Structures are given as structure tokens and as C-alpha cells.
Amino acid sequence: MESFILSLLLAVLLLASSSPGTCFRFPSLAKACKPSGYVKGNFSKCIENDCCAAGKKYPQYRCSPPVTEATHATMTIKSFEEGGDGGGPSECDGKYHSDNETVVALSTGWYHHGSRCGRNIRIHANGNSVLAKVVDECDSVNGCDADHDFQPPCDNNIVDASRAVWDALKIPLSQVGDYEITWSDA
Fold it and tell me: Where is the signal peptide (predicted)?
């Protein structure tokens, strides 16, 4: 009986996720997570292309879509090393991590106040999978300031991954950037 209820619930969730027009790249279950506010870009000393534009509003998310056995997400690349593009040390352990370690940062909702810190997630992409340890948060609430390198808040569906994760998934260098993946708790 319990497996029937779980199957029925999954079917309902999948049907509910098929509606168009959501802010989430994968429409599955995204309506459950709407922007909680906006942060406004301001003048900055930004030297990168992905910085906040003065006067533009960027959505803030305190939530992320529910985690499933195959949670859809966008994987981005991040250096967790000192002096890398990740800024300060990782939120979970206050340390920097080598780009040769399979580590990730999760959007605020999935990071969930550090509840996944030190735990592994399994990432699937390009016909491969890899275990990666959660060591940081990809802040979906704050941004456009010096503490965030004048970058906008992360989207609510980001897995920010080290170079080692990309290498383990055998994703060609030419495709590094925003890459559609699925992931689950390991």
C-alpha cells in the first residue's frame, strides 16, 4: 500500500510539473518555488561579464525545487581554491578545497542552512555519474555586492561544481558553462 501511495504521489507531481511558463529551466515542480524578492544591481568595480547591471532587478530565492531521485539542475563551474572565483572559504567547513576534489555548492534552498554539508550527492550527466561532497552554498538570496563579487544571486536550481566534477563526468571543455544535469542525495 505504501509503495502505491508513493507511486501515485510521484505521478501527480510529474503531471503537475508539465505546465509551461515557469522561471525554472526544467519546468518540473518549479511552481512550488517562486522568487521571494529582488535585489537591485548597483554601480560596481566589476571586471567579469556576469556581474549585476546597475538598476536591474535580480530574483532572490529562499527555496529550490524538491529533491527527487533525479532532480533537474543546471551545473556551473566554480573554483573552491584560495584566490579562485568562489570568493572566501567554503561555508560548511571554513576551508578552501582543491579543484581536484569532487566538491559542490548548492543553491540556498537545497543547501538548506547547511543540512547537506559534508554529505555526498550523486550527479548524472553525459552518460556518467560522480559522487561529490557538498561544501558550500550558492547564495540564491544575496548578491550584487562586494561580498558576492558583484554577481547576481544564484538561480534556485544551481549545482556549482569543481573542475574535478566536470572531469569525472567527461564533459568536454568546450561545453563547460551552464550544463543540464540531474542529481540526488547519495
Answer: 1-23
Convert 16-35 into a string of H (helix), E (strand) and C (coil).
HCCCCCCCCCCCCCHHHCCC
**Burial bucket for residue 139 (CB in 10 Å: 0-12, 13-18, 19+):** buried
Beta bridge partners of 131: 122
CA angle 88, 119, 9 (to 5 degrees): 120
Average pLDDT across the chain, whole number: 84
pLDDT digits (tens, 9 = 90+) for 83-110: 888 778 999 999 999 999 999 999 999 9
Domain of 67, in residue numbers:
59-185
138 phi and psi angles, rounded to 5 deg: -95, 100
Question: Could you tell me the pTM of the whole model?
Answer: 0.80
Q: Measured on CA atoms in the order 60, 50, 134, 179, is the torsion positive or negative? A: positive
pLDDT in tens, 143-158: 988 888 788 999 999 9
- Residue 87 forms part of a structural domain: yes
- What is the domain-level CATH number for residue 116? 2.40.40.10
Instruction: Give the Cα separation of 156 and 152 in Å (integer).
Output: 12
What would you report as the CA-atom Rg of the chain, rounded to the nearest whole angstrom? 17
The number of folded domains in the chain is 1
| Lowest mean per-residue pLDDT among 47-61, 64-78, 79-93 | 47-61
